[in-house]
Amino acid sequence: ASPLFEVRDLRVAFGRNGTYAEAVRGISLHVDPGEVLGIVGESGSGKSVGMLAALGLQPEGARVTGSVRFDGRELVGLPRRELRKLRGSRIAMIFQDPLSSLNPVMTVGEQIIEAVRLHNPDMSRHAAADRARDLLALVAIPQPDRRLAQYPHEFSGGMRQRVMIAMAVANDPDLLIADEPTTALDVTVQAQIMEVLAELQARLKLGLILITHDLGVLAGHADRVAVVYAGQVVEQAGVDDLFARPGHPYTRGLIASIPDMTVQNDRLFSIDGTPPALGQLPAGCAFHPRCIAAGEICRREAPSMREEGGHAAACHFAFAPSETIA
Ligand code: SF4
Ligand code: MG
User: Fold this and answer.
1) Domain annotation for the chain: domains and CATH numbers
2) 297 CA to middle of ligand 2, Å?
């Protein structure tokens, strides 16, 4: 089967003083129909900027090149009007902060009905109201009739995110892009929202892209994972394979920073340093200033992607038989 969504050599550059600096430096990835792809990386890694740009939502003045195909159709260069039509119908998105995406002076019911009718202008109000009720049930919000008459501030953060998910799937999308959907929520609510998303994904056979800074979120929920650092995919693998034998030191660092997987003195491991600022890319491997495994070659030469059985990592020492780095 051909991929539902395929990104090839996507680059997003921002102009400053007549020169361009790339925030996204040639990302390639794909999502098959009904598949869950996790994209993980620190904030500023380019993971959100890249996926937003792929859907035509780049900031003003950004330069986007490469290819983004959805269901065989090229999206890069498509008129904004066409992209807008796709977003909200066949491609849906949810973000970290549901409150800022909801209208505070409209009831939740009105907003869902509006979302339903935006892409189904011929649907009657009555049918759209029925659909709104079904959608709340789909995301497990109890007492839908009472809830539909309420305003966003009467909902908890978790309930608001359920509403956003309901609105996102209102028009039966094929692809849902969720950018840090649980980051603003506390841990127990995070788990509930992930359950709702996972159940919906399975039931509606959605292609799902889960963007997160927390690799732990992806453990039970992604089929494959792409690890992004400094605007590039540095590792890509099936989720079990990624956790079992991470090939890139950055991925090993991310795994070690997952609270439940840390055994050392219950002190949370973190990767020292910060990602390079836009336009301040170090020579050689972009990760070398922070890498505990860096060798001489890393300061001179950017590693290319090494692949082994569908598992790819961009590190000079990935999958080396003599590898002893922890
Ligand atoms: Fe570290 Fe070198 Fe691998 Fe980069 S190429 S991740 S610096 S070991
Ligand atoms: Mg982000």
Assistant:
1) 5-90+171-313 (3.40.50.300)
2) 32
Pocket of ligand 1 (CB under 6 A): 248-249, 285, 287-288, 291, 293-294, 298, 303, 315-317
Is residue 14 predicted with pLDDT exceeding 50?
Answer: yes
| Integer Cα distance of 323 and 256 in angstroms | 18
Which atom of ligand 1 lies closest to the CA of 291?
1
* Strand pairing report for 224-229 and 207-212: unpaired
Q: Are the C-beta atoms of 146 and 155 separated by less than 8 Å?
A: no
Strand partners, 235: 227, 313
The phi, psi pair for 90, rounded to 5°, reads -85, -25
Sign of CA dihedral 205, 210, 215, 216: negative
Please choose, from the candidates 220, 221, 222, 216, the residue with its C-alpha nearest in 3D space to the C-alpha of residue 260.
Answer: 216
In angstroms, what is the span from residue 43 Cα to ligand 2's centroid? 6
User: What number is the ipTM of this complex?
Assistant: 0.96
CA of 301 to the centre of ligand 1 (A): 10
pLDDT in tens, 198-222: 999 999 999 999 999 999 999 989 9
| 298, 319, 323, best to mutate for ligand 1 pocket (most atoms within 8 Å of CB) | 298
pLDDT, averaged across the chain: 92
pLDDT in tens, 109-148: 999 999 999 888 999 999 999 999 999 999 999 999 999 9
